[in-house]
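User: Can you model how zinc ion sits in this protein?
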Amino acid sequence: MLGTGNAFMPYGRYHSFAMIDCKHVIDCPPTAMASLRRAGVPLSEIETIFITHIHGDHVFGFPFFLLERRYISDREMQKPLTVVAAEGVKEHLWHLCELAYPESLEEIFATVEWRTESEGSLSSGLTWKRFRVHHDESVDPYGYHFNAGQFGSFVHSGDSGPCDSLYDEILLADMAILEMGLPEWVDSDHHHKPSDIQSLAQRAEHIPLIITHTFIDQPGFNPNPTVTDVYPVHPKNVHHAEDGLRLILEPDGWILEI
Ligand SMILES: [Zn+2]
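Assistant: Here's the modeled complex, given as structure tokens:
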């Protein structure tokens, strides 16, 4: 978990950003490069970017990501990069690149392989299924269900409020990375709130729910929290992730290494 904050970057957190096996990432937030630098992962080692939706806190790091590879870590443009995303995302990201660095990213952008199918697999055997979630419709929101065969599967919610399409996938998975973008008092159903997490945790009591995209500061990071730095009390299958958390899949299940 390279970043675990919502769009407002609560103290102690970068934007929500997850990495799988040190070579695939989910979304490309404005803090993506900072997160990868902090984790000591060369950007050229990233093989795949899965895009959930096109809100700025999920994709505005893409021009910087390509810029760094083009001029620093992959100058010969030899390292393959695949972007898995819904139809239309390619055009949106190209627009971002042109706004950010006109005429600097054409060559490397042309080397990207775009995969728009909703179900597919990578050479490592990891498969994905992209499914609709409940969020702002204008940003084409999806979650992903990843499956590593005998090693198990997990869901990433992207940004979503409570919805059956997400919960159906979570109930079939061995673990879920789930957003909790809003405090209880905000009048919106486009994100999960603590009470939504509580309800789901009771339904999915054997499935670890790893909370990301949170509105809660890292506890104790700043004496004047953005909103709060106190985690709600949730069932024991809920874990409020912080930046740097590693989730390791062992034969007995998921292990959290902080
Ligand atoms: Zn969003």
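A couple of observations from the model: The chain has a mean pLDDT of 96. The radius of gyration is 18 Å.
User: Helpful, thanks.
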